[in-house]
């Protein structure tokens, strides 16, 4: 089973670069640009790993980290 990660970054260039890098390594990636999209993606599917930009325009990435910790089952 391939690793699946959620990438949250509001910088399109950096987000797409990380997405391309991990996909080239065989990792399944979902790229989102804001906290609301990240929360919606997490509600739709399970991600064992999230790469989060902590300094976002409207919201802090820390808000999503707290949401992710509360809503993602740990193994």
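^ Assign residues to that structure.
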């Amino acid at each position: 089973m391939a690793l699946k990660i959620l990438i949250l970054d509001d910088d399109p260039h950096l987000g797409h670069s990380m997405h391309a890098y991990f996909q080239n390594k065989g990792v399944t990636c979902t790229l989102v640009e804001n906290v609301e999209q990240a929360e919606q993606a997490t509600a739709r599917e399970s991600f064992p790993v999230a790469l989060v930009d902590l300094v976002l325009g409207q919201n802090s990435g820390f808000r999503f980290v707290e949401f992710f910790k509360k809503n993602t089952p740990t193994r």
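The chain has one domain: 4-71.
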